[in-house]
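TODO from last week: model MFS transporter.
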Amino acid sequence: MGGNRIPALLSERLPFYYGWVVLAGVCCAGFSRQGPAVATLSVFVEPMTGEFGWSRTAISGAVSLGGILAAFASPVIGPLLDRHGAKAILAAAVLVTGVTVTLLSTVHSLLLFYLLFCIARMNFAGPYDIGIYGAVNNWFVARRAQAASIATLAQMLGLVAMPLIAHGAILADGWRTGWLAVGATVLIVGFVPNWLLMVRRPEDIGLEPDRPPGTAAAGPAPPEPLFTRAAAMRTPTFWLLSLFTFLVYPVQAGVSLHQAPYLIERGLDPTVAATVVSTFSAGSAVGSLLFGMGARRIGMRATLTAVALFMGAGTVVLLGVHGPLQAYLGGALYGLGIGGLVVSLPVAWADYFGRRSYGAIRGAALSIQVTAQAVGPVLSGALRDWTGDYVLSLEVFTALALSGAVVALLTRAPRGQGRDDVQGGTR
């Protein structure tokens, strides 16, 4: 049993399903993931551009380039998840992210900033996403949406905490100390639980998804779709979900990165702007729970549509910001949509196409996602540098979000291999 000896022994003695232990480790990784999040970087934009004279487009480019690197890496990482599980993927992601984010405190040139942040951002966009939701989807089927919402909530809590940790350290001793504080948090929270306790699938230690041995009275686990990556890519569902992803993720990344400098330009105090970022993150946490718990009730198509509409509503409110109240409202609405997006899209891929090749399928789709994320920050920064404000970029993001809602309405569960096995809530 090798590296699964400790988990196997624990699973025999625990009075509850070992999947919840796996989920706890996933939550620690998810919290640590937010070190190089765009919302965290948003807090550093003003002090770093002020010290070095970099343009907003230049600093946004690091987010985009890191996403492009993840687009190339994700199709390779996905099949590794299917073969070996999330343990090595998440442990490596935490270590590399923690080290690179810590080293950002030593930056004196744009080139070094790009080198370090692009590596951290590649981990954020690729290995973390595949590892976190791969582990959740491998261990949970009947309660997949609930487990994914808990994992997403942990990420949103990290998204609340990291900007505040960074902002507090910046106020105390400058932006270099801010990066040190963020890097230390990544390493302390994220590494050990995953290295010690993660297992590829429940079958590897004699369990079944969602339940330990001895609970047969609960009934058999529902059958799953069995799509391979090639079969999935032959379905309209794959390409509609991919188009939805390509439309909404520029909004996710573009607004998240530039919200703090936008609010400061609208006359808000930097501390208010930082707390609006955390309000957006808190809204994301609430959204992850609401959409995670509600996806089975309203169906995946309606869930994805609502997600896009919330994102669009948030950008509309932000367009009219003239004071803190509007800023908090816009951040909360936008955050609700982001929380729903982060939790519902990985569940949609797993529900529609199954566990068998989830890593390979998600890895291919993630290339589209991180490319879209790469577009958002550069588009927003370039439009701001061109027009002198963020109004046009927010108008573009509103249009993209509403277009995503239309595409979500057109999405259906795939026909063919495994079609009848998809749970009713995702049809």
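Done. The two ends are 38 Å apart (CA to CA).
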